[in-house]
Amino acid sequence: MNSTVLKTDLALPADWRDFVALTKPRVMSLVVFTGLCGLLAAPVTLPPVLGFTAILCIALAAGAAAALNQWYEADLDALMKRTAKRPLPDGRMDRTAALHFGVGLGAFSVLLMGLALNWLAGAVLAGSILFYVVIYTIWLKRRTPQNIVIGGAAGAFPPLIGWAAATGDVTLLPLLLFTLIFLWTPPHFWALSLFVRSDYAAAGVPMLPVVSGHRVTRQQIALYTLPMGVAAVAPWPLGLTGWLYGITASALSIIFLALSLRVLANRATEPAEMGPEKKLFAFSIVYLFAVFGALVADHWLLA
User: Is pLDDT above 70 for 264?
Assistant: First the structure.
């Protein structure tokens, strides 16, 4: 990595807010929510203390992965306007402190999950951290425009972990939830990358809009939306959920598809501030919260 662009040689002692910022709290909220939904949709109800412990471990692991991501990508973050004020590129924290914080947080979360719940959940939790840091951050992100396609698996683990924490096993429903998030990640992230393309270009990150342009990216968004919708609805006809989830997932997926087709039809060379790309990105977050919320409501109200 090129460290000459960083200010870490003059880094000030970090305070607690910098360590919190390393965990990417806004991103963590979606990770924790989908993990909680996987836990609550499982056929086993954990005692509250164990349920809280499982979700705490998922949150700590997500924070650890984010911290290690920022430790490794400090040079890239310094080159992009939207990330230049993070603790490392802004010189508020030493890189060694970020590395120790990420490793310590990750190791603690895995050990706690294994000891308090079960080692299958602990193993999947460890795998999610390693996948995000090693496979996505270190191996894929700087090398291929398919980085977010393969790397998207890292964000798909939480419902699988929540389910495994409750049951000690993995069945078809959590695998379908994993697949849903895996297929949701490319259109969600590419919609974002379309209107921050210049940031990625400046940092030399080969995101799809930088390498292949707007038209191909818009086509890929629409193409990934179709199997994503199938994965979202599939638990209903397979008898794994009830009508409440099925109808909600179907309606939301239709809206997602309609928005992706508006993105596909857009011919602007630079996405507008309130254009279809921005609207799809905003809805994609609502979509995942709503689909997983419907999963839990379906399980508890129709069981």
Answer: yes
